[in-house]
Amino acid sequence: MENLIAQASSFIYTYAPSVIGAILTLIIGLWIIGWVTGMVDRLMAKRGVDETVRPFLKSLISVGLKIMLLLAVASKFGVETTSFVAIFGALAFAIGMALQGSLGHFASGVLLLIFKPYRVGDLVTVGGETGTVKEIQIFNTVLATLDNKRIIVPNGVVTSNVMTNISGQGTVGVELTFGIGYGDDIDKAKNIILQVGKECPHVLDDPAQGVVVAELGDSSVNLATRPFCNSENYWDTFFYMQENVKKAFDREGINIPYPTMDVNVSQG
């Protein structure tokens, strides 16, 4: 009996400090992790990080810190943690290799949600596709085109290519070119285009619309104009100007030429 008591005392004396240290490490560590994740969440909310990505980032930080905490607790018992680190590293590497494409799109999605180069409702050109942003998901950006097609663009494609946010400044210039014949009055055609712009309900007064001779083409004098409108009225302005400038040209006798070809037939 005395021998058993002595062995128990020796066991407690040997391992009690490690057990107490591990328990204290676990309790204090969990409290610190809760405080850190809470602070990060508040910081993300203050910076305006999208609500769809905040819970994931918070969980990612929490899981990473808890793994480190468990390794620290295990070391209190004298457990060699090097092998665990190697196993975690190999596992992470294997998962990363298997999902490298998806992880790349995911990382790009997180960047898009954090830095917000465009928002839902913006008219954009991404990945060679133009449309209105309907959703910004973790892996994809969903666009709706003018003809109501649903286009899903992987976020990795978005961040690795040039992206154009047509709506990004609130107002946008509508690039238009109209060709007239070489025998037509340039000043008259300019005034017609400007008048149609004044009549368009979407064209803004500031900046003022202008018309210039952009090119002396093979069969036409090309006049360029850039009326400004609010971003959401881009297509309405584009189509209004195209239709009504043509109608005004027809009324005023301004010709819109098209390429022609003279064919000479030689009779032998």
Number of strand elements: 10
Succession of helices and strands: HHHHEEEEHEEEHEEEH
Can you identify the CATH class of the largest domain? Answer: Mainly Alpha
* Overall residue-averaged pLDDT value: 79
From the 3D coordinates, which CATH architecture of the largest domain would you assign? Orthogonal Bundle
Largest sheet: 5 strands, antiparallel
Q: What is the helix tally?
A: 7
Tell me the radius of gyration.
34 Å
Low-confidence runs: none
Distance between the termini: 133 Å
Could you tell me the CATH topology label of the largest domain: Helix Hairpins
Portion in helices:
40-55%
Principal-axis shape: elongated
What do you see in this structure?
The protein has 268 residues and is of the alpha+beta class. The chain has three domains: 2-98, Helix Hairpins; 117-165, SH3 type barrels (Roll); 171-252, Alpha-Beta Plaits. The protein contains seven helices and ten strands. The chain has helices at 2-47, 54-76, 82-98, 100-115, 155-159, 186-199, 234-252; strands at residues 123-126, 129-136, 140-144, 150-154, 164-165, 171-173, 176-180, 211-216, 221-225, 228-230. The strands form three sheets. The chain has a five-stranded antiparallel beta sheet. It is elongated and about 125 Å long.
